[in-house]
Amino acid sequence: MGSKQKERRDGRIMAVQILYTSEVQGKKPLDLLNEGLCLIEEGPLSDFSLAAVRGVQENQAKIDDCLQSISENWTLSRMPMVDLAVLRLAAYEILFSDDVPVSVAINEAVELAKAFGGEDESPRFVNGVLGRLARKLEEDPGMVAADEADAAATDDAAAVAAAADAALDADMADAAAAADDSEADAADDPSSRRAEIPSLPNNCEGAPAEETPAAADVPETTC
Fold first, then answer.
1. Where are the alpha helices (DSSP H) in 71-217?
2. Distance (Å, rounded) from C-alpha 169 to C-alpha 1?
3. Cα(30)–Cα(36) distance, rounded to whole angstroms?
4. DSSP per residue, 68-100
5. Which residues are CB-contacts of 79 (< 8 A; sequence separation ≥ 6)?
6. pLDDT tens column, 82-129
7. How far from 5 is each of 2, 10, 44, 104, 127, CA to CA, in Å?
8. Cα separations (Å) of 220 from 114, 213, 223?
9. Burial class of 96 by CB neighbour count within 10 A (0 to 12, 13 to 18, 19+)
């Protein structure tokens, strides 16, 4: 085995460990790494491993939709967690990685399933699922490109909305500043002074402030 091939195989092992731990703990993979909650026995995380973990996390909704659509009589929640981690990594390489041939991604996933799979049938199961995914991609090569175009359009729309919000905030700040200037001018004018009126009790005092609505999540495109 060449040095690059071994480096990548070791990188995949590390990535699967992180993805598996993420599933067990119910945390995002990158959060585990940032919080130091995922210890890697093999040593420092390689760039290849980190890129793979980040790629799976960023595209997990799409990956899971594709896996679910081709997993006959199986839901993702019923799959052994190690098998699911292996499938997610391989599906990321098949769908989104330009430098990993489909056959290599499948073969490497089968080897990982042989070494770490949760069931005796894990290698056969992983091979079958990924084989169906490869055939589906061959039948519809544009399925990922279409989703990427949709994502780019969504990003553009979000940028326009953010710019509009920023402009509105600036206008409101200018209006508030103008109002403050007017009040200051009035305070300096003796003819405008009046007796101060005591503030009325606020019946709503202590009530929780309204929270700003969060931006709506853009649903992931399914296969």
1. 81-96, 102-116, 122-139, 143-188
2. 59
3. 10
4. HHH-TT--GGGS-HHHHHHHHHHHHHHHH-TTS
5. 71, 87
6. 999 999 999 999 999 999 999 999 999 999 999 998 778 999 999 999
7. 5, 9, 18, 10, 20
8. 32, 21, 10
9. middle
